[in-house]
Each structure stands twice: as C-alpha cells, then as structure tokens.
Design a protein that fits this description.
The chain has twelve helices and ten strands. It is α/β, with parallel strands linked by helices. Strands 7-6-5-4-3-2-1-8-9-10 form a ten-stranded mixed β-sheet, with helices on one face. Helix 4 links the parallel strand 3 and strand 4.
Length: about 350
C-alpha cells in the first residue's frame, strides 16, 4: 500500500507531467479492417470497414507538424489489424527518415516469417501481440480456430530477434482466468520476456457478453496472481495501465497508476480525428487533421484530459481515493461525462468485505 509521502510525491510528479504534456506515444488507427471477429472488440472492427484506410501521405503530413521531437517518441500502428495494409513498411521507413521510432499492435494472424523480415528491414522497433488463453479459450475469444497457432508462430518469430522489443498482452476473462499459470509457463518456454494483463470493460462487443467480465473475486484473483508472478524474474509480468487498483498499486506494475491519455499519449483516428488512446469514446476528439494543425491541437487543446476535476461525479464524487485515481482510466468514460463504467478499486474493496 502506498504511504502518504509516496502518494504526495507521485501526485506532484503527475501534475508536472500533465503541465508539460510532452507527446511520447502517438497511436495511428491506420485501418479499421480486421481479419478476425473477436468477441471482445472495443472498436467493433470488421472485414469490410465503413471507413477506407487513411492514405499514408495524409498521416505523414500530420506527423510533419510535430516540432522538437522527444527522444523517446514512438508511433504505434493500430487498428483493426495493421498488417492488412500493404504499405506498413513504406510508412515505417518514412517515419524512420523523420527520426521517429515505430511499432505495431497485432493479432498475430498475418505475422509470418516473410513479414517478420520485411518489418525488420523497415525499422520496426517494437511489437505487441495478443494471446488470450490456451488454444481453446484463445480461439473462442478470437472467434477463429486457427489463430492460436498463428499467434504462437508470431511469438516465436518475435522472440528470435533481439532488434524487436516485444511483449504479449492478454485480455483476462472468465474463460481464461484459471489458465494464467499455464499461459505464463507457455510464454516462458517461447522466450517471451514481457507480459501485460488486461481486463475487459463493457464497451463495443463486450458490452453484452457477461462471459468476458470478471467478478470481484476473479479480479482479486488476477491481482494476487500478478503479485506472485512478479516475485520471479523469468518473465516481466504486470497489470496494464487501465485503472487504479488501491492496495495493489505498488505490487502489480512498475509505477503507480497514471492515465496518460491526452497527457503523453495521442492518436490519429481512421477519419482524421485527433484524440488520445484509440479505445476512448470518440466524443472526446479534439480536432481533425484534415482541418487542423495536429501539433497545435496537441499543445493547445486536450483540456478535458489534462484537468480531470470533471470526473468527480457519480460514484467518484465522494471517493476517498479520487486524488490518486482521478476517475480511473479514460476509456472507462464511454458515453460521455456521465459516470465511470468500472471502478477497479471498488472490486477489491467489495471482495475484502465478503
């Protein structure tokens, strides 16, 4: 549990970072086409998207408005499934010419040896691959009977290269919660070095599927599992940045909860909208690259992200942990400024009372 002094120091650090709002990560929703039909998709992507892929030239033009590039700045290709695009390598090379690092978030289905070599040659620096259970539970969530084998192949390829900083993400749900130790052992056997665990919040397709959402007891089970895993150095296991977890804060991740959406993290969405993390409600968009200067929007707008006092409503209004949580992860405010969808700390405290 955080001491009062550590809490105070971290709040000061968070306030300083918010005031500077240096752009470190930029997500590019380069496509909303996808070759899978996952049960939990927050973007509700499909094979035939309503939106055409954004032309690379349009994105690069927006990128060229960025001044004073931070040393650790990274562009993250996301979607949909980015590897459906045939020009990822072209885009990657253009970003490298401009001094930007770049990475991909992928479902792994198209990540074969040929594409692996091609992406390396284009300068890819990091890769995130999704593995959501052992074979049966993973294929169930991904709605594809072949995806597990494809993902394992992608993990083996990625782990074979020291040039890629790659990690595995797992969306923990009721089908895979009791498989976590076996998944950990599988990843270690494949030489994976980093594993991030997420929960699923009720947005997109997950809004009406109770099998995807953890009970309070299961959420605490997840926290305890991560705490135990972090005692070992075989693989770096951590809880995602998705929300404040009270007494587990110093135990399940490397740093205390800090939703950096709109503070260090921005995005350019498929229609040109300028926002923060792509999973955030689209009503929070701050402008559009087709009508606005991207970097000026980043510098001068985003106040709704950088001053979170407005989230002190509903169940957050009287919360004793509000100064540390600030309304939880921003993606929990789908539907606009009404009420937080999920309070992770509430799950922990409810479980403790039972």
């Amino acid at each position: 549990m955080l001491s009062s002094v550590k809490k105070y120091v971290f709040r000061k650090f968070r306030d300083s970072e918010t005031k500077r709002h240096e752009l470190n990560y930029l997500f590019w929703e380069c496509t909303t086409r996808c070759n899978l039909n996952c049960l939990h998709c927050g973007s509700d992507c499909s094979k035939d998207s309503l939106h055409p892929d954004m032309p690379a030239e349009d994105f690069l033009k927006a990128i060229d408005t960025i001044k004073n590039i931070p040393q650790n700045f990274t562009v993250v290709f996301t979607g949909g499934e980015p590897l459906l695009r045939k020009d990822i390598e072209f885009c990657g090379k253009e970003l490298r010419k401009r001094g930007f690092k770049w990475s991909i978030v992928s479902n792994g289905h198209l990540y074969d040896k040929e594409r692996h070599i091609s992406l390396l040659n284009a300068g890819i620096g990091a890769l995130t691959i999704s593995l959501d259970g052992l074979k049966e539970s993973h294929n169930w969530l991904r709605n594809n009977e072949k995806n597990f084998d494809k993902v394992i192949n992608a993990i083996e390829l990625a782990s074979s290269s020291h040039r890629i900083n790659f990690d595995i993400v797992t969306c923990v749900n009721q089908r895979n919660i009791n498989e976590l130790q076996q998944i950990r052992e599988l990843l270690i056997s494949k030489n994976a070095k980093a594993w991030r665990l997420f929960t699923i919040i009720p947005i997109g397709r997950a809004a009406h599927n109770s099998d995807l959402l953890l009970t309070d007891n299961q959420f605490v089970q997840l926290m305890d599992f991560i705490v135990e895993c972090r005692k070992s150095k075989e693989i770096d296991v951590k809880f995602s940045c998705e929300g404040y977890v009270g007494k587990y804060e110093s135990l399940v991740r490397d740093s205390y909860f800090f939703c950096r959406a709109g503070i260090n993290i921005g995005s350019i969405l498929i229609d040109g909208s300028i926002s923060a993390c792509p999973n955030i409600d689209r009503t929070f968009s701050q402008g559009n690259i087709y009508t606005d200067n991207f970097y000026e929007v980043w510098k001068d707008k985003f106040q709704v992200f950088r001053n979170r006092k407005w989230t002190k409503i509903g169940q957050c209004e009287s919360c004793k942990d509000f100064k540390d949580c600030l309304g939880n992860g921003f993606h929990n405010w789908h539907g606009g400024k009404k009420n937080v969808l999920v309070c992770h700390n509430e799950k922990i405290e409810k479980n403790a009372k039972n």
